[in-house]
Amino acid sequence: MHEILRAMRRHAAVTPHRPAVTDGISSLDYAELAARVAGAAQALTALGGAGPRPVVGILGANRVEWVVAQLAIWQAGYTAVPLPPFFSAAQCRHIAADAGITHIIHTPDADPGPGGPSDLPLQPVPAMTAATAALDLAGTARQVIYTSGSTGTPKGVLLEGRQLSWSTLALAQAIDARPDDHYLSLLPMALLLETLCAITMPLSAGARVTLMPGLTDRMGGPAPGPAPLRLADAITAAAPTCLMLVPQLLAAWVTELERTGGTVPPGLRLVAVGGAAVPPALAERAWALGIPVHEGYGLSECCSVVALNRPGQRRPGTVGRPLPGLRVTLDGGEIVVTGPSVMSGYLGTTPANEPAGPATWRTGDLGTFDDDGHLTVHGRRDALIVTPGGRNISPEWVEAHFLNDPRLSHCLLSDGGMDGLAMLLVPAPAAESWFEAAGNDAIAALASTAAAGLPAYARPRRHHVAPLRDLAARGLLTANGRLRRRETTAAYHLQLHPPAMPAIPTPLDHSTTDH
Fold this sequence. Notes:
alpha/beta, Luciferase, domain 3, 22% strand
């Protein structure tokens, strides 16, 4: 992380009045940013005393104060623990205890929420007093990212400053980050990927960042209300060159542009999309509108980015080539990552000694490489379905066919054994009224059309519709908005596989290709 802080200070000295970050309420140029970070770091050092080095939680929305707080914690040599707004109060209490958080600082509009970790010292970001302190790099900056994954109990991914710095510089090289870039931040800053894309990468390159708090919901999807229109208008008004989206936000933007005939900003050169698989048809619709979609792949345990389609080198249907310096191999089809971005370990289980060589992480994801080294991700190894007929089915492959329909936000394939396959359909926000008005025949026709390109053994025999708000209320979404597969399957098992319900006969399929 030292490299990032030094780069910010260099920009403050060479181009002091270049715009650095704004949220529509506050704005800082590079000189002001460096001074505010130094002032906040000085204030934070008073927290240390003679005891253990503080572990500082960050709470709030995407505001200038969050950026200052994040950089100041690193400059003070402390451990930063973002508290995701999409976690429950119980999960936040678990994070506070598990990480050993000693203090929590918050942005002006933060809401600790009922039952949150309010028994800890809670104070505003001590960031808005300027200072010119020397850059003290004696401390060890760390970041702990909590990911719920497929369980409800968050796990803390421990990342050292060296892993964050390496990933920042490798990502900047991959996308050709430039001082004249303008990054628009729409996803929650508590996500590691947004920390890289909205703080470390643009500020190390001397670029400017615009934060848009309130445009997305707590999961990073469109905010309640007429969000797609606000999203399209915000992107047009900001006129960024780069931004990061999840597939749900991309779908909302594409749908609004198709409905209104709107256009994308002329200087937009890169829209990176990650967090979940991007349906190929959605990517094609985006490119037809002039949205330069570039799919990527990664996970928190590997500092968020493993592979990315580079500008000018995109290969549709893949997530691009691995970042330079990472060794990505396949072991029995499983993606294995070795290199400097692999985490130090989960908090509480970190080895006492650093590994002798580059660390390795078995991702649990299945993938293949094409002849040019572009990676295609096929889904989770532990999600593989084996049918009574002996067929191996990756549910993500079947779900991708359904997600090509813009009326769907999420879907999940469930295995009922001899009862056959069933699909949970989750309407996109813009299509909820269509599902409410549609009869059973219309929804069945949607499902039949979505499955038309699949072999018979992979076609769901039945379906069930569940609103996204119901899934969110039941805690069935992960931190980045994906369905928690095991819990969702259990929660809707009776609807998907009702007892004594006759199945629709499925023609025998003689294909020999498994997915």
